[in-house]
What does this fold into?
Amino acid sequence: MSVEQAYNHWASQYDTNENKTRDLEAVALRELLTTINFNTVLEIGCGTGKNTVWLLQKASFVTAVDFSEEMLNQAKQKLKKELETGKVNFIRADITKAWSFVKEKFDLVTFSLVLEHLKNLEDIFEKVANSLKAGGYMYIGELHPFKQYAGSKARFQTAEGEKVLECYTHHLSDFTNAANAYGLAPVLIKEYFDDNDRTTLPRLLSILFVKKS
It folds into this structure.
């Protein structure tokens, strides 16, 4: 089962299944972005719209991208009003290909639990740099590499058994080196732990970058 097929299958239960990584990433995004001003957002991997709702409380417009049709259908149902009023545009796209959906420069580009499914970070960071205004921000929230070292991967249960998605391990230096290559400087790096227990492996790595002027 491909990653796209897996997320299509997962979509109907994604919001209701127990998922500590999903829930902690939602906390991280809100904490890192709450003091940042942004008007236009490119949300990569919007999924069911769990973060889109919050982003629209601060932004006037969000371009929300995902490659799973079923995930997008869930998001469209969740944000019917915002879709009707033109505050959000949902786009199905493969982000490893040309970003034809970028028609303008954005104040903020976000990635929530996306990059672990991509092998080549530099290609993505180059596309982000080309999509951001000078002084604009890039946010990433990913399963912590320490968790990946211990064998953790995105997974969910089906009637046929557990489905484990294809994932790639990216080290902290992989993120920062790719960012530096395209003029993106880290502003804040934060780790998140289950129940805030810092004696355990961190579950989530979140980084905020800014595009250099």
In short: Strands lie at 40-44, 61-66, 88-92, 106-112, 132-143, 155-158, 161-164, 184-192, 204-211. The chain is about 35% helix and 30% strand. The CA atoms of residues 121 and 174 lie 8 Å apart.
